[in-house]
Amino acid sequence: MSETSPPAPAMRSPSLPTGPSPRRYPRPALSSLGLSPGKRTRLKRLLYQYGPGGGTLLILPIDQGLEHGPVDFFANPDSLDPKYQYELAREGKFSAIALHIGLAEKYFHEYAGDVPLILKLNGKTAVPSDSQAFSPLTGTVEDAVRLGADAVGYTVYVGSPAQDRDFRQFLDVRQDAERLGMPVVVWAYPRGEAIAKRGGKEGLYAVDYAARVALELGADIVKLNYPVASEKDAESPAPYNSLHLSADEAFRKVVESAGRALVLVSGGEKVGDQEMLKKVRSSMDAGATGIIFGRNLWQRPKAEALRVTREIHAIFREYAQPPA
Amino acid sequence: MSETSPPAPAMRSPSLPTGPSPRRYPRPALSSLGLSPGKRTRLKRLLYQYGPGGGTLLILPIDQGLEHGPVDFFANPDSLDPKYQYELAREGKFSAIALHIGLAEKYFHEYAGDVPLILKLNGKTAVPSDSQAFSPLTGTVEDAVRLGADAVGYTVYVGSPAQDRDFRQFLDVRQDAERLGMPVVVWAYPRGEAIAKRGGKEGLYAVDYAARVALELGADIVKLNYPVASEKDAESPAPYNSLHLSADEAFRKVVESAGRALVLVSGGEKVGDQEMLKKVRSSMDAGATGIIFGRNLWQRPKAEALRVTREIHAIFREYAQPPA
Amino acid sequence: MSETSPPAPAMRSPSLPTGPSPRRYPRPALSSLGLSPGKRTRLKRLLYQYGPGGGTLLILPIDQGLEHGPVDFFANPDSLDPKYQYELAREGKFSAIALHIGLAEKYFHEYAGDVPLILKLNGKTAVPSDSQAFSPLTGTVEDAVRLGADAVGYTVYVGSPAQDRDFRQFLDVRQDAERLGMPVVVWAYPRGEAIAKRGGKEGLYAVDYAARVALELGADIVKLNYPVASEKDAESPAPYNSLHLSADEAFRKVVESAGRALVLVSGGEKVGDQEMLKKVRSSMDAGATGIIFGRNLWQRPKAEALRVTREIHAIFREYAQPPA
Amino acid sequence: MSETSPPAPAMRSPSLPTGPSPRRYPRPALSSLGLSPGKRTRLKRLLYQYGPGGGTLLILPIDQGLEHGPVDFFANPDSLDPKYQYELAREGKFSAIALHIGLAEKYFHEYAGDVPLILKLNGKTAVPSDSQAFSPLTGTVEDAVRLGADAVGYTVYVGSPAQDRDFRQFLDVRQDAERLGMPVVVWAYPRGEAIAKRGGKEGLYAVDYAARVALELGADIVKLNYPVASEKDAESPAPYNSLHLSADEAFRKVVESAGRALVLVSGGEKVGDQEMLKKVRSSMDAGATGIIFGRNLWQRPKAEALRVTREIHAIFREYAQPPA
Amino acid sequence: MSETSPPAPAMRSPSLPTGPSPRRYPRPALSSLGLSPGKRTRLKRLLYQYGPGGGTLLILPIDQGLEHGPVDFFANPDSLDPKYQYELAREGKFSAIALHIGLAEKYFHEYAGDVPLILKLNGKTAVPSDSQAFSPLTGTVEDAVRLGADAVGYTVYVGSPAQDRDFRQFLDVRQDAERLGMPVVVWAYPRGEAIAKRGGKEGLYAVDYAARVALELGADIVKLNYPVASEKDAESPAPYNSLHLSADEAFRKVVESAGRALVLVSGGEKVGDQEMLKKVRSSMDAGATGIIFGRNLWQRPKAEALRVTREIHAIFREYAQPPA
Q: Which residues in chain C are contacts of B38 at CB distance < 8 A?
């Protein structure tokens, strides 16, 4: 496919939800994923042995100190100390905590075996311009193995002018992960000027494309944002510029594009409780496997964060399924 | 979470010192750091067996000949000969001397076993523009092992447009250091145009971010400058643009952001004695593990430098703690 | 020259001590050894910064559990727990403790930085016949570096039919040690049928030859047993079969054969206090650099072991010399 | 310390020669350099066994054909044939000849063992702009070993925008040379726009900085140009902009900045005999170890070149010293 | 060629000296050897720049401490300290000293550049039975390069049952030496039961075969013993069993078999002065390039050893030739 905006295909019969009551879409079954024994062992641990279980994922990310800086910790000063998040993950019974090598090396030893680890393998600061967005490696799959992690995380900037380096760097990570039986979680983010001209990084066109790219490149799990409808959608390539889907429909669409890559919904900035819990439920209805919520949870005092976490657990129980 | 600069969160209750009398904040305990035996052996040697001991660090750097040029030695012509600093380190009972491969290969053999060595692994000259600041490798972790060094040093330019290459280069250093049990000291320096637009490289925003980046990337020890308040703070991202912290509060803040990376305070340019000793005490109060003072010490005649060093030792004795 | 056993040369004037009062022979000066900076740093640490200092070495070995089996711990049941020896080494201010990888991995982290480590790199059990004596590797120089060791140990069985493999294996250890600046301590033990026919493994011929082999192969330090005179000496090659040296003269002879390899005297089985202290003094008189006493020390209750250790420290102080 | 160009420190008492009669400054003693046996063997050969001896170096470079092109050979057409320089080096009893791989492979075999070889490992042509000056590798340290060379040469362009790549490339050369015991001669040349703005590549600031950079990066020998005073000095950073040193004082200054890197004086373009011999004497007075004169010698007919070479030998005899 | 005893060839016209006055046979010219530049450089250094020069070689070996044990040093106790031989080599102006890695690492640094080094790369002790004679590696060609050696030495046991391992081991040494331009000296020794049955290791059959094996395997220089006529010659394969050559004729024969491998004559055990000097002269007449005399020289007090060495120099001057 050429990288210029493609002509609008005739849209035959979109597999989108219809009718008044929301349908529940199935998550991909573990047995369908063609996983090597190592990946299967580790994924099953995350899906069934730790966290809410029942085939769901509740991930606590704490890479914001690198990606945004300490600024994100002002809202809840306790959260500046990584022990806060580690303890929240343990007490809140999360499926895993996701973070960079430094926070793993210095703190994980106190929680090893209690909280599964997703080692984030690349990252960058918020300081240099995002115009050539690219996250260099900060760790390796071997680091993850050495530390006893159960998955690795990697950010791909779909559409960035630096995409070629990004794909190449990801190739090595994916191959190491394959060789060592380590599941790969892809943070799939649209970025760059060309994306901006096609409806923006939060538009359905961009998020949908990112979901598919993650699948195509070999992600086992993909972290996706909810597409946000806006007037910029009009600049999206056809037929995106005229789809007019609801938020739930749009998210359902990207879950479908992710295929057999399990979908994690990103929390984004902190929002109100009801809005957040509604998003959890909608995501699960749409076929997501779980959520990856950071600031929405740890930008709160711990008691409050735990209370909300319990509510999420309750919702997840409704979506629990036995291993297949 | 999104990776663009986030909006200013509401600031709840910053964990900063309050009240009239300065509080002493604890340094991270060695036993909490999750260190491999080799890192632990070497760090313990620096913290307890050499130098002032008691868990403190007094480091003499002499990389200015490369970073600034011989110009820094004019103030004390004796200091042009590296033996001056080596002898100052030995007589002044420093925890370690920090320098590049050439000064190690040619001079260290006369001081081996008497003064621990921190081999600085990357550096650059002051001549080319700093706009793409990046320090290429001048030595390797294997060089450090071969020379009998007890730690390695690495400069990260946080925010530089060349940050990609820097993170990637650091990854290799960090992994070699992990494999060989060698502690890593990160010189964490904000740099580049984007930093200049966010309050400048000496502002709290920049230094605070640099402290956290060092922690996230896996530094065992981080060298930090005191943040300097100025009118440029107004250009910092919120809430930094309205914090108005005292110098001590600001430094306390960055020590906290460094987490379990032990903090060394940079001396910067030579200042008066009282100001310098006051800085030492404030730093230790704020939870720093020690200081890395170069020009403030070796830009003086030796007798004077030793006199001041003795005063630093005396202060450090107040902060001495048994190994834990 | 031919490489078969040569005929006995006429002995002109053996450089052996004469007269009633024992002479003190000098130890090789550190500065004469042609050491790389790394070896120099680490050796100087052992000789001057830890242990009795003054250029002496007091080493506590605990490889008997592998070499002899737990049988050696019956005499002092506390000694079965490796912490016993570690604590003895720390409290008794030993220059280093010498042991295998397992005892290093599992226990050393609690003593890292307090007691220097000599990682023993090869060993065997007492069970299979000694007729083809050969100690395979149990660790590597990189292990030693990673653990923060200050030297490595290697057993050479001089004269064993498996000598070929032994020399070849040692070559790799020696080269890695050279590359990484790690001093090499050679346990030089005569072994095998051919040795048995030439006066036995404790005879002067055998020990003298072993000392020289260690020097020729590149040992920095060599552990030697006191030659034991016996009627078997008559079967030694000339002129050894007619030398009739005293124990002190014989040991002086082997120290000289070791040349610039520093000599450690082996303690062997436990003997009485006075005999042991006399051996310490005689060894130092003969030019030894120190002692490596295991069972003689840790087969006692700790209070008693520490008392004897203090007496050894007192003797060593008489032989203390400044670094040269 | 900060790594930006620092403000001018107050200059206390520069360690420069004073008074009417020129003082002789000592060269670094071979024994002080901490050399491995291989570097020591090869350097001693150059300093004492070949060439003028007595610890001096007389080097004939012939890399101008690559660096400048055949244009340099017009002045003396015989010099176009590399045999001319090889024979001059042999008949004139030079300490070594310095050249690139092609001139070594094709011609050196006829002079092997008679004239020591310094294999130049990087170079470039004069054709592309010097604004990003960088010399890529043309040979390796293994090439030098294979050819029987006694040293390798490497050009560093201090201050060039390509300094990053240069330092990194030099790192590999330095490590190979250390591993194989091969001395490293650094051609230390200031270059680039930023240098031009700070008094130019021939100014004292630039040459002094280059001398120190070579020392810091690990040069065993550094080739330096005489600093040239000019009105551009006023643009140098303080205090260089107001030093007003004589040519001899300025050169003495850079020799001191080179520390334990032995200094070779560059000849530069051809000058008159008396001026050249005066420069030789001044350099040796200032503590240089020798000279590296190319065009000044081989741009003459051989008889004349040999006559001048004999005069240089005569001067060097005055500076001869026994090995130390 | 089969390895069983070949049938007796008809002997046409052996190229042996005839008539009353001994003829001088030429040594192979350096230019005829097809040497790489590195080998040529190093060999020329040994043949012309150090030692007696004029294309001759005077080598002092000191590997007897390993091969025979300290027993060889009794005749001259001073010789037990390797400095004795090093100083003899320097004062006696030897072409090189030949020894193992330990004596190189610990002592060579004091003589580097003054006495060329031949690093002996394999060896064994005299203790295990010689029936499977094989010398394992004790060093590598890279060690030799690193130490600044000018050649390497290797013992081949021709005819030993372990010959297959020996040839294979030599292959690697020879290839490394070729790659790094390092001349190879082969100690060619017949050994083993099969040799014993064919006239013994000192018989002409065995030595002649060993000379040819060294040439065939790629030796640059071969160390050979004088064949010794005895009644065991009768057991040699025809026609060796009926040649009845004089000692000089026999040696001439083996020199011819060595072809373009330069021949060093072994000294063997110490003999009287006149006998030794006669052997030197005979060897040179027969086309040897030099001698390798150990015990004959260093089993004497130094003054005496130097006197004899001067006599050897005087003889060598008669055989001096310019480089060709």
A: 145-148
- The per-residue pLDDT for A130 is 86
By Cβ distance, the residue of B168, B175, B239 closest to A74 is B239
pLDDT in tens, chain A (324 residues): 344 444 444 433 334 444 444 578 999 999 899 999 999 999 999 999 999 999 999 999 999 999 999 999 999 999 999 999 999 999 999 999 999 999 999 999 999 999 999 999 999 999 988 888 999 999 999 999 999 999 999 999 999 999 999 999 999 999 999 999 999 999 999 999 999 999 999 999 999 999 999 999 999 999 999 999 999 999 999 999 999 899 999 999 999 999 999 999 998 788 889 999 999 999 999 999 999 999 999 999 999 999 999 999 999 999 999 987
Cα–Cα distance measured from residue D106 to residue D104, given in angstroms and rounded to the nearest whole number: 6
DSSP at D68: T
The whole-model pTM stands at: 0.90
C208: nearest CB among E70, E102, E106: E70
The distance of E278 to chain C (nearest Cα, Å) reads 18
Checking if the pLDDT of C136 tops 60, the result is yes
CB-based contacts of A170, cutoff 8 Å, min separation 6: A154, A156, A186, A217
Rounded to a whole number of angstroms, the distance from the CA of C207 to the nearest CA of chain E is: 10
With an 8 Å Cβ cutoff, are C257 and E136 in contact? no
Is residue E158 within 8 Å of E200, Cβ to Cβ?
no
| CB-CB contact of B180 with C176 (8 Å) | no
- The ipTM, to two decimals, is 0.89
Give the chain B residue whose CA is nearest to the CA of A142.
B175
High-pLDDT (> 70) share of chain E, %: 93
Question: Omega of the bond prior to A239 within 30 degrees of 0, cis?
Answer: yes
pLDDT tens digits for range E138-166: 999 999 999 999 999 999 999 999 999 99
Kindly indicate the confidence band of residue B22, based on its pLDDT and cuts at 50, 70 and 90. Answer: low
Inter-chain contact A134–B209, Cβ cutoff 8 Å? no
Burial track E183-218 (b if 16+ CB lie within 10 A, e otherwise): bbbbbbbbbbebbbebbbbbbbbbbbbbbbbbbebb
Question: Look-up: residue for tokens 């040469």?
Answer: D153
In single-letter form, the type of residue at position B210 comes to A
Helices (H), C68-226: 82-91, 101-107, 141-147, 163-180, 193-196, 204-217
Chain D residues in contact with E39 by the CB 8 A cut-off are 148
Two tokens, residue E294: 């150990």
Chain D residues with a Cβ under 8 Å from any Cβ in chain C: 34, 36-37, 179
Q: Are strands B262-266 and B290-292 parallel, antiparallel or unpaired?
A: parallel
pLDDT tens digits for range D71-116: 999 999 999 999 999 999 999 999 999 999 999 999 999 999 999 9
Two tokens, residue D138 = 């043309």
Shortest CA gap B1–chain A (Å): 4
- Which of chain D's residues have a Cβ under 8 Å away from the Cβ of E45? 113
Residues of E with CB under 8 A from a CB of D: 35-45, 47-50, 104-105, 108-109, 112-114, 117, 142, 145-148, 179-181, 323
With touching defined as 3 or more inter-chain CB pairs under 8 Å, the answer for chains A and D is: no
Catalytically active residues of E are: 189, 223
Contacting residues for D121 by C-beta, under 8 A, at least 6 apart:
D137, D138, D139, D140, D141, D143, D144, D152, D153, D154, D173
Instruction: Render the burial of D242-257: b for 16+ CB within 10 Å, e for the rest.
Output: ebebeebbbbbbbbbb
The tens digit of pLDDT for each residue in C20-55 reads 445 789 999 999 999 999 999 999 999 999 999 999
Active site residues of B: 189, 223
Residues D39 and C228: their CA atoms lie apart, in Å, by 44
| Among the partner residues D34, D37, D179, nearest to C37 by beta-carbon distance | D34
